[in-house]
């Protein structure tokens, strides 16, 4: 095996802890890599006025693969208050460095798999016929467009005149909002491009084909959001017809999907959506397989890719002397990295070790025991972050 270079981006709070444990697991599994730690997060905002320093961008430009923990973001005023005194007159405005990374490197394809671990006490169950209890196996992979749509950042309150006048040319704007004073308007746009829409759709179909999923579901709202959702669905029909005739194309609306996901989650395979609906539907499915302690993700660009758990920095837990959070989401994200760089054997080994620990049920972090997260959970029988990582290492 040739030695890889991975840029590790611990960030803030529990991101630092889960990443450290994940690297221990990767080492124990025999993955040969050099980790170069890059600066990102709140500390660099406070000290330097930039939570995503240029040197971090350069490292990712060079080495292409990033393993990211989590960062802390705070509202505008709080961010300004914590900025170093000598930077306060520089007109700096905080923005999230993970969103910055996605945009800078055009990490437009976000993949969020939600697969049930057998034996996880957090698995979704439902009542079946004759009062039986059913535990449907969920095996869904969400493809979320990661750079455009409602999170594209093109928005205004009290929009500039040019923008306002352009809106006035739309008959619906005139009828529905024409009486509202400009000062009382806030507008967030939902922009889709054919290029990015085509990329996320093809990524979803490719994945379905490669891993044998029978369907790709476009989860949007084309009956109401006719232009953007409509374009995505129309393109999906064309792409399915021309390039993937063996894979079924399904169409669900995001609202109905949130209802169906608890009625019949086992029916879905690959799901593809725009940025915000992808964010929503992936959290929905993650809830069926154990929630934030289990939800992993990949952000893929054409050159650079960054792998991260979907949870944040959970700052209140970062101060505990013994860390209590579940490292599985971060470790599973590292497995996605391994799959991406063709280290499938190591990845399978780690995934099997996680599955073995969960099914055995002897080592469970507080979330798996349905406890409230507090410093004393370890005394009460929950495994610490380190103990969970150790249990996984023991199974390797
Ligand atoms: P969060 O994901 O950090 O925590 C929410 C709650 O989920 C925690 O209080 C804890 O109960 C649980 N949780 C999270 N990770 C867990 C794990 N590994 N094991 C067990 N339980 C876990 O989200 P929150 O509290 O909304 O945000 C905290 C900070 O994180 C904020 O500053 C926010 O901006 C940031 N954030 C960063 C993200 C990123 O780096 N990608 C994503 C989401 C939030
Ligand atoms: Mg989210």
In CATH terms, what is the fold-level topology of the largest domain?
A: Isopropylmalate Dehydrogenase
CATH class of the largest domain: Alpha Beta
Strands ordered across the widest β-sheet: 2-1-3-14-13-4-7-12-10-11
Uncertain segments are none
Please compute the radius of gyration using only Cα atoms: 22 Å
| Structural class based on helices, strands and sheet pairing | alpha/beta
Distance between the termini: 18 Å
DSSP summary: helix tally: 15
The largest sheet, given as strand count, sense and whether it forms a barrel, is:
10 strands, mixed
Oligomer: single chain
Note the overall shape: globular
List of distinct ligands in this structure:
1,4-dihydronicotinamide adenine dinucleotide, magnesium ion
Helix content: 40-55%
What's the number of structural domains? 3
Order of helices and strands: EHEHHEHHEEEEEHHEHEHEHEHEEHHHH
What's the overall average pLDDT, rounded?
96
Annotated CATH homologous superfamily of the largest domain: Isopropylmalate Dehydrogenase
CATH architecture of the largest domain: 3-Layer(aba) Sandwich
Using DSSP, what is the number of strands? 14
